[in-house]
From TrEMBL:
Organism per entry: Candidatus Yanofskybacteria bacterium GW2011_GWA2_44_9
GO molecular function: RNA nuclease activity
Name this polypeptide is given: NYN domain-containing protein
Protein origin, superkingdom: Bacteria
Start and end residues of each NYN domain: 13-161
């Protein structure tokens, strides 16, 4: 299901905001696989002018993680990281919702299009705000794990399940 109400233009300046944890868990739960973030960036950029691509990650200090973070940077992402919070009782928290929203709003003055790479319905108010302020807002996520409200709110939706042969690592 690819929803598209606004055509993509080559002269569009875009900002890409990737909720890495959301994408990681979606790919793992749906396909027992991992995301090829280099290909993902190519797909969502769609030959438009990339202003910034930011990947938001949670650190847990493992060797695999260090290599993964380096691969994200080589693929063209700027990394923002924070430590996983572990609360008394064992509950873990590590979400980036507020910081991603602040960055998207801050960068909205420099871009024509904001691409949210996440299936998290918590971003719906952000999408509505950015649209109200004249931006084209696109969402990319795995259709089965993307909030219907988020898909509905976005101008365009890229269902990564339709390009899973490209965006999932073999």
């Amino acid at each position: 299901m690819n929803k598209s109400t606004v055509p993509q233009r080559k002269n569009h300046r875009i900002g890409v905001f990737v909720d890495v944890s959301n994408m990681y868990h979606s790919a793992k739960n749906l396909y027992k696989s991992r995301v090829n973030f280099r290909e993902l960036l190519k797909i969502v950029t769609a030959n438009r002018e990339l202003v910034r691509a930011i990947a938001y990650v949670i650190k847990s200090d493992t060797k695999e993680e260090k290599a993964f973070f380096e691969a994200l940077e080589k693929a063209g992402f700027e990394l923002k990281s924070k430590d996983l919070q572990i609360f008394p009782g064992g509950m873990k928290k590590g979400d980036w919702d507020v910081a991603i929203a602040i960055d998207a709003i801050t960068l909205s003055k420099l871009v024509d299009v904001v691409v949210m790479v996440s299936g998290d319905g918590d971003y719906e108010p952000l999408v509505e705000y950015l649209k109200f302020n004249g931006l084209v807002v696109e969402v990319a996520g795995f259709g089965r794990s993307t909030s219907a409200r988020l898909i509905e709110a976005a101008h365009n939706f890229t269902d990564l399940e339709e390009v899973k042969d490209k965006v999932l690592l073999k």
